[in-house]
Structures are given as C-alpha cells and as structure tokens.
UniProtKB/TrEMBL annotation:
The lineage of its organism: Eukaryota, Viridiplantae, Streptophyta, Embryophyta, Tracheophyta. This is Bifunctional L-3-cyanoalanine synthase/cysteine synthase D2-like isoform X2. Keywords: Amino-acid biosynthesis, Cysteine biosynthesis, Pyridoxal phosphate, Transferase. The keyword Cell wall biogenesis/degradation does not apply. It comes from Herrania umbratica. Its cofactor is pyridoxal 5'-phosphate. Belongs to the cysteine synthase/cystathionine beta-synthase family. One of its GO terms (molecular function) is transferase activity.
C-alpha cells in the first residue's frame, strides 16, 4: 500500500516525525548498530523546534509548560515506532536536559531494560563529578546540573572531548553525508564508544543529532577548511 501524501496546512505540521538512519562508514570496530535520529531535518534544522512549538502551543492553551513534555510525547514515541520497539540504548547530549529526560522516560516506560546515556564534554564533566570548564561543544556542557534534567533517568554519562566531537562531526559529513553540528559529533562519538563494548553486541543504539552543521561555519568545526581555503594559491 502506498503511503498517503498530503499538503500540510502550515509549517507546524512539519515539526517532528524526523527520520532515523543507520551509520555505516564510521563504525569500524563496533559490535552494535548505531542509528541517528535526524533532528537537523526539522523546519528550523534543530531539535529545539519541538521545544519552541510546545512552548507556544502551551502558552496559547493555558500558559503552562512541562519540561521535557514534547520529547516524552513525540521524540520518544517516534524512536520506539521507527525502531519497531527494538531500541536498546538512547544517547543524548545534555544541554537543558529536556530531550534526554522526556525521551528517556518514555522509552524506559516502554522497556525498563533500555539504557539511557547522557553525553557531556570531558573538559566540563560536571555530571560525572568534575569541575566546569571551557570547551568547544556548543549546546551541551553548561557547567551546571540543569534543573530540567532527571539524573535518575541516566544509566551513565559518557565524556567526549571537544576534539573528538569535532573530528566525528567531520567524519559524519565526509563519510555518511550528514552535515551536522558539533554536539551531534559528540553524540555520535559517545555512541561509537558504547557500540564497541562487547556487552552491546548486536544491540541498537540510537543517538540524537540535535542540529545541522551550516550554522557552525564560523566555529572550530570548519577551522581547518577555512585555513585551507585561505592558503590556496592560484596560478
């Protein structure tokens, strides 16, 4: 049966239902599969589309907003549906904590065996008891434990360095055709670490890719390319 297509009434109907795609070319040595949830394909190319819409809708309805609610109501169910309930682990970079709290809560309610992993910069590993510090992974690692974050939902917080995040984001663009931001690179790097653990053999790990990469053109993500362009000579 062909899938029904229809013209949406407005842009808000384009929010959510983002696709998932397997990573194939940067996963050497992994014994688990990794699927990326492409929030970069939201209308404004960010996971925050869901939050913004939820805030506006709640404000229009009753002026109330529940932290993590939209990810519990939408992101989590989409992952469960698209994976046909076979997801074994969720990997999310921790910014405000809403995504990991909402989606993680939903998935654990569906299957208590599902593991939920947060991701934070090794340079500012507050959730692992470290001290806040400067890093280059925009969008995560604020140096505090966010009020929205339900730390009880986390099975582990994986540390990723700024260099790892940037290099993995570059590999995603070059080898997987996914132009993503630095925090997506951090999520992928963490997922790859987890996918190499023997205990995860044959499991499905879903990593949230929060945003697209074009907004990082002036950041460290593209610094080497800028230098290369600046040093080009023409005969």
């Amino acid at each position: 049966m062909e899938e029904k297509c229809e013209i949406k009434k407005d842009v808000t109907e384009l929010i959510g239902n983002t696709p998932m795609v397997y990573l194939n070319n940067i996963v050497d040595g992994c014994v688990a599969r990794i699927a990326a949830k492409l929030e970069l394909l939201e209308p404004c190319s960010s996971v925050k589309d869901r939050i913004a819409y939820s805030m506006i809708k709640d404000a229009e309805d009753k002026g109330l907003i529940t932290p993590g609610k939209i990810h519990y109501d939408a992101t989590g169910p989409e992952i469960w549906k698209d994976s046909e309930g076979k997801v074994d682990a969720l990997v999310v970079g921790i910014g405000t904590g809403g995504t990991v709290t909402g989606a993680g809560k939903f998935l654990k309610e569906k299957n208590s065996e599902i593991k939920v992993y947060g991701v934070e910069p090794v340079e500012s590993a507050v959730l692992n008891g470290g001290k806040p510090g400067p890093h280059l992974i925009q969008g995560i690692g604020a140096g505090i434990v966010p009020d929205v974050l339900d730390v009880g939902i986390l099975d582990e917080v994986v540390e990723v360095s700024s260099e790892e995040a940037i290099e993995t984001a570059k590999k995603l663009a070059l080898n997987e055709g996914l132009l993503v931001g630095i925090s997506s690179g951090a999520a992928a790097a963490a997922a790859i670490k987890l996918a190499k653990r023997p205990e995860n053999t044959g499991k499905l790990i879903v990593a949230i890719f929060p945003s697209a990469g074009e907004r990082y053109l002036s950041s460290a993500l593209f610094e080497s390319l800028r230098q290369e362009a600046e040093n080009m000579t023409f005969d």
